[in-house]
Amino acid sequence: MIDLSTWNLSIPEGTPALTIATPVLVKGFKDAYFHSDTGTLFFWAPVTGSKTANAIYPRSELRETNANGTVHNWTYGAADNYLRASLMINQVPSTGKIVIGQIHVFNSNEPMLKVEYQYKEKTADGNVVAKLRLSPADADAAVITIASGVKLNTRFPYIIHLAKDGTLSVTVADKTYVVKIDTKWSTAAFYYKAGAYVQDNTGYATEGGAVTFYNLAITHTP
Q1: How far apart are CA 96 and CA 212, in angstroms?
Q2: CATH number at residue 184
Q3: What is the DSSP string of 101-147?
Q4: Domain membership flag for residue 157
Q5: Fewest CB within 10 angstroms: 37, 60, 122, 126, which?
Q6: Are strands 18-20 and 7-11 parallel, antiparallel or unpaired?
Q7: Which domain range does residue 80 map to?
Q8: Neighbouring residues of 53: CB distance < 8 A, sequence distance ≥ 6
Q9: Inter-residue contact 9 to 19 (CB < 8 Å)
Q10: Roughly how many angstroms between the first and final C-alpha of the chain, as a whole number?
């Protein structure tokens, strides 16, 4: 079973979107947007779903917490920080884009890193890209293709590692991108996110993003 004791969950229901607290999640929360009773994590985010405050797209997505449900934020210099996942993309919206992992910034609308699946109808497969702001001053994220030829309903792993010295590595399947982030990030309060954050908000209620996670784990090693 995947340990949910360090996550809360946002689901695209209500105005603004609802947050399911860690203790409720651990007890087996289940609805149309999320379930974990099969030993995997299933996320569904329709394009018609509601949004979190200040967001323009719907999501069914986990956010890092402490076991008591309070949010957990961290600075990269305090530990070796990993988010490890194994998953498959089951459905994409018409844009083909779903964010499946993030390093977000506390009290900011702009993450430092998004890992995004981008499906292409022409080739019937997709790329997994990193959208990265190397510096807090960057208004736009650089887009780096890490893996290509990733098909729907095919399991693949990713690892997001931010080391104490600010070295960021993103590994998807057997491909790795490595870069040193700006030291101006050293005071930022980061947190991991994972799930199905669709980059689309138009269409029918049957359109959206569905993702199944087989493994998902955070570690912070001092």
Answers
A1: 16
A2: 2.60.120.200
A3: EEEEETT-SS-SEEEEEEEETTTTEEEEEEEE-SSTT-SS-EEEEEE
A4: yes
A5: 122
A6: antiparallel
A7: 7-221
A8: 16
A9: yes
A10: 25
Q: Which residue has the tokens 């149309």?
A: 32
For residue 67, the one-letter residue type is A
Supply the DSSP string of 96-111, one letter for each residue.
-EEEEEEEEETT-SS-
The DSSP output letter for 67 is: T
**Paired tokens of 199:** 């980059």
- What tens-digit pLDDT sequence spans the chain (222 residues)? 899 999 999 999 999 999 999 999 999 999 999 999 999 999 999 999 999 988 999 999 999 999 999 999 999 999 999 999 999 999 999 999 999 999 999 999 999 999 999 999 999 999 999 999 999 999 999 999 999 999 999 999 999 999 999 999 999 999 999 999 999 999 999 999 999 999 999 999 999 999 999 999 999 999
- DSSP three-state, residue 30: coil
**Tokens matching residue 135:** 């510096």
Burial 40-78 (b: 16+ CB within 10 A, else e): bbbbbbbbebbbbeebebbbbbbbbbeeebeebbbebee
Residue 1 belongs to some domain of the structure: no
